[in-house]
Predict the 3D structure of the following.
Amino acid sequence: MICFDKNNKILIMQIVDFLLLLLRYWCIILFLLYYIFLFYFYFYFMYFFNYLYL
């Protein structure tokens, strides 16, 4: 693994690109999940407080 030929280097570059792509999509997915979670709790609490006050 220490001495790289050209094919090994290309394979490692592809793996790194794949991991970076996955990381970028994980950031987007976590961002969307965070907002969905936030809106869900917001509506849930609004409903709950409306139920409480009525």
